[in-house]
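FAQ

Q: What does a record look like?
A: Structure on top, sequence underneath. For example:
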């Protein structure tokens, strides 16, 4: 601290002979310096009030009051100085308002600092008791802010009774009127602050540096005789720099105190670790007090349990200690709902093995209903490797969550049973929807679709989703593929059969086995990937499709245009057939945007060597619009509903099949 003061005094001494040199006005200088000083004062005040709140040190709160006084008067000074807030300033009622506030600021602040850290015997020794610290802090803040406000009001309203301190930029009146009083007062306060600070330790002692900077500002300003001179600029710069140094020093001091507190905390923790055995048991009990806590002895008897544990468990400690009664009347349940012997409960496992049990689910069947508890246990050993003396069990109520999990598990088991029943019965029913040449009505292919008789009454997508969810997705899909391949012989002429498959099935060895043993011409088989199928490894899928294509299988991508996945499939897989999604086809006859998109996808398909098939043709108007766009192939209710084979070789393009 003394080194900083020496540098500050040296700067003042070097600048003092040249303080009157006119530099000219810098419009942004004063707003910036005042903003920095305001920020530094505010942070310093907050830190000092915080120190008082934590320690009760009287010096800290008195010193905080000096920064609060500075903040209030500084605010008035900024509002009165011309050019900071408007050309005149909202408080600039007369030219001398700002000089009077500056004088009050630079006189009052050092006096308050001297009052806080000066060498006054027994002045601020001792600490304020914790219960009244908050009240004391607020009272001090209010009193100081009130005093600063009165000073500002006096300067603003003092035109008729305060001397004029400035004429234009001339400050000679300030030097002549205020110098004989301000310089001795500020000097005496600064000397007192420096002497007192040398005897102190901690962050409060650094306030003497700010007081010294205020003295330097006063000396240089009064010596400069006018605004915007070298002394005027250097004085205000010293104030800001010293405030910054004080703030950094206070933060460093607080960091050191925090480190010391951390060391003391570590020592206290070490003392607690070495406490006697009873305290260790109590500490363990407290650490487990989430909802319910139970302490059991080496024989399993209940030593103690808190009210929350008794509410969760139901029976009293005496009833719980009677194993026969618990086994017969108070049933304990495993997570799946089956009976759990007492010997297998987490507490008894810990008693017998010494191993803590973590996050174990246990059910209790109470007269009021079933309750599920999450149990954690810890053991207190007799010596380092001795037997278990006590077991502490903590428990939290998980009834709602675990009941929902059990219900979901039962629902999953039921869905698995339904899917397994379909597989046992031979698989789903296969129907085929014709794919038609839109120019001639010739059936060129068909899409194989699965149908389920239920219950439940749900669509094929829901059945396959259930199968995937219960781990039977591949089995159900392969069953449908086998049944679909068996219908190829009944397809008209050389028409192909399009079969929906997921990427997982395409990359499986089981599919190659099914195709290899089907005994059908694979060049009449089209493998159709849907938009809903997520692909995590396109390289593996491309490799599998390349092997299938070498055997004659063609590839189609379903639902093109309905989402990003289908476009990603097309770009990565280069399909032979692109199927236009039903949402783009429905209403295309009166929607130019749909027509343009269909035309664009048609050109795109031709560019990659693929055919475009329009799905979901349900009206003659949509059929006509698609033919005008140039789409050659399509399917939909207008052309033919999904039905068991055989399919007709041609369909009428003049009336709806659905209407017939």
């Amino acid at each position: 601290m003394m080194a900083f003061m020496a540098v500050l005094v040296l700067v003042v001494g070097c600048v003092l002979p040249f303080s009157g040199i006119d530099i000219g006005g810098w419009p942004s200088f004063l707003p910036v310096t005042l903003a920095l000083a305001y920020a530094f004062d505010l942070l310093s005040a907050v830190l000092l009030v915080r120190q008082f709140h934590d320690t009760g040190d009287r010096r800290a709160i008195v010193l905080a009051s000096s920064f609060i006084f500075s903040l209030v008067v500084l605010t008035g000074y900024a509002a009165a100085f011309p050019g900071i807030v408007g050309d005149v300033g909202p408080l600039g009622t007369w030219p001398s308002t700002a000089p009077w506030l500056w004088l009050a600021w630079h006189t009052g602040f050092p006096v308050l600092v001297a009052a806080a850290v000066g060498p006054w015997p027994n002045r601020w020794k001792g600490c304020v008791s914790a219960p009244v610290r908050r009240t004391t802090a607020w009272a001090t803040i209010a009193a100081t802010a009130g005093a600063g406000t009165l000073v500002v009001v006096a300067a603003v309203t003092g035109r008729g009774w305060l001397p004029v301190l400035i004429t234009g930029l001339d400050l000679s009146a300030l030097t002549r009127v205020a110098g004989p009083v301000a310089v001795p007062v500020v000097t005496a306060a600064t000397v007192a602050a420096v002497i007192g600070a040398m005897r102190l330790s901690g962050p409060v002692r650094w306030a003497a540096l700010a007081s010294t900077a205020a003295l330097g500002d006063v000396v240089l300003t009064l010596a400069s005789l006018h605004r915007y001179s070298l002394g005027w600029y250097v004085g205000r710069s010293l104030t800001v720099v010293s405030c910054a140094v004080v703030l950094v020093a206070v933060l460093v001091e607080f960091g050191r105190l925090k480190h010391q507190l951390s060391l003391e905390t570590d020592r206290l923790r070490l003392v607690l670790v070495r406490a006697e055995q009873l305290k260790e048991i109590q500490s363990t009990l407290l650490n487990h007090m989430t909802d319910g806590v139970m302490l059991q002895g080496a024989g399993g008897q209940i030593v103690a349990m808190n009210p929350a544990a008794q509410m969760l468990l139901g029976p009293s400690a005496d009833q719980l200690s009677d194993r026969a009664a618990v086994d017969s009347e108070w049933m304990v349940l495993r997570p799946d709902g089956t009976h759990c012997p007492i010997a297998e409960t987490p507490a008894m496992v810990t008693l017998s093995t010494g191993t803590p049990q973590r996050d174990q689910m246990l059910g209790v069947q109470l007269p009021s209903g079933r309750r599920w508890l999450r149990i954690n246990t810890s053991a207190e050993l007799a010596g380092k490797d001795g037997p278990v003396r006590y077991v502490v069990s903590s428990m939290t109520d998980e009834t709602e969550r675990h009941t929902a999990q059990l219900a979901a598990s039962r629902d999953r088991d039921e869905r698995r049973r339904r899917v397994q029943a379909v597989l046992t019965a031979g698989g789903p029913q296969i129907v085929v929807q014709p794919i038609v040449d839109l120019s001639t009505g010739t059936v060129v292919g068909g899409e194989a679709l699965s149908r389920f008789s239920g219950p439940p009454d749900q669509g094929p997508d829901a059945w396959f989703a259930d199968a995937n969810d219960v781990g039977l997705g591949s089995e159900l899909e392969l069953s449908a593929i086998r049944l679909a391949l068996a219908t190829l012989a009944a397809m008209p002429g050389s028409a192909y059969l399009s079969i929906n498959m997921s990427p997982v099935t395409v990359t499986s060895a089981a599919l190659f086995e099914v195709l290899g043993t089907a005994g059908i011409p694979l060049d009449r088989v089209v493998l159709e990937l849907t938009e809903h199928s997520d692909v995590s490894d396109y390289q593996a899928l491309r490799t599998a499709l390349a092997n299938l294509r070498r055997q004659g299988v063609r590839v189609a991508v379903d639902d093109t245009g309905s989402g990003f996945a289908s476009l990603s499939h097309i770009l990565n897989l280069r399909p032979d057939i692109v199927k236009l999604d039903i949402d783009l086809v429905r209403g295309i006859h009166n929607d130019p945007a749909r027509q343009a998109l269909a035309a664009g996808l048609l050109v795109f398909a031709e560019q990659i060597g693929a055919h475009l098939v329009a799905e979901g043709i349900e009206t003659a108007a949509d059929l006509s619009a698609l033919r005008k766009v140039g789409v050659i192939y399509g399917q939909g209710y207008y052309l033919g509903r999904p039905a068991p084979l055989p399919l007709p070789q041609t369909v009428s393009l003049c009336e709806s099949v659905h209407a017939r």
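Q: Is there anything notable about this one?
A: Residues 32-261 form a domain with the Rhopdopsin 7-helix transmembrane proteins fold (CATH 1.20.1070).
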